[in-house]
Amino acid sequence: MDVRVTSDPQAFEQAVFPFLQQDPVLHTIIMSNVHERANGTAPAEPEPSYFVSVHDPDVIGVAMRTPGRGVYLGALPEDLAELIADAYADVLPELPGVAGDRPAARRFAERWVERRGGGLTEMRGTRLHKLIDLTPLEAEGSARLMRADEVELVAAWGKDGFAEELATGHREWAERRIDDGTMWMWEVGGEAVSMAGYHLPIFGVCRVGPVYTPPGKRRHGYAGALTSQVSATILADGNQACLYTDLANPTSNKIYYQAGYRPVADFVDVEFSA
To answer: In which domain, by residue range, is 81 found?
Structure first.
């Protein structure tokens, strides 16, 4: 097998997307991250990304590492995990962790620790869902697109609920949501009480997120109603919808099931320690 490492997102996209697009829902995170870097819509980054592909002779597995984050394996087959770990160990002195299908993430982590030392700890589990049959959810209020005067509000909500995922540049992230038209708000009595965004389609798939309701406005069904409205918008544009949930949050998993989402795959985050 041939293992290839590149920091060129355009070359990587050309090489691996014919493989990934066979199941664009399962590979949504890698495809969206690579595509945004390939077409120049991702924010400028202080260091390169590293993309890895395994060929035998065609592509049979991929992984990515973007600046400041761990390696993301997605649905990588377990038997390729050590090859991927060795490839990253050859170009990176350290990593905060790895995420992906549990057997592959665990095997990658064990190989990384074997080569670099330190320890590993399994952290958050997540579940990928695909919308199968939309059932609209209802709540008091209505959905509308984010307004330009809500950039600071959306940035603050993003920082509060998704600090790790969004890293820095929360205002810039919120401004891009205005430009893309991909952030929706749930409004009650003229007040925004919840937000739900989505990623622009990649091969006909939109990933919903982030979804956030501030603590004082929760337990009223706003997020579920807004997510179902955003999902309807995605379907109306001719695309598929998918989303991730935290396995430790049974409430959100139940709500999205009620809206018509069904599980596709489970993933785990593993953190490394010195």
So the answer is: 2-117
Question: What is residue 262's DSSP assignment?
Answer: E
Across residues 102-126, what is the average pLDDT? 96
Say how far apart CA 30 and CA 233 lie, in whole Å: 23
Q: Tell me which residue has tokens 């691996």.
A: 16
Q: What is the pTM of this model?
A: 0.92
The tokens describing 206, both together, are 């939109």
Local confidence band at 111 (pLDDT 50, 70, 90 cut-offs): very high
- Asked if residue 142 and residue 91 are part of one domain, the reply reads no
pLDDT reported for residue 222: 97
Question: Is residue 221 exposed (0-12), middle (13-18) or buried (19+ Cβ within 10 Å)?
Answer: middle
All residues at 6 or more sequence positions from 103 whose CB lies less than 8 Å from its CB, including other chains: 78, 81
Give me the number of domains the chain comprises. Answer: 2
Rounded to whole angstroms, the Cα distance separating 180 from 226 reads 18
In this prediction, residue 140 carries a pLDDT of 98
Q: Alpha-carbon distance 46 to 101, whole Å?
A: 28
Burial class (CB in 10 A: 0-12, 13-18, 19+), 117: exposed
Are β-strands 2-6 and 50-55 bridged in parallel, bridged antiparallel, or unpaired? antiparallel
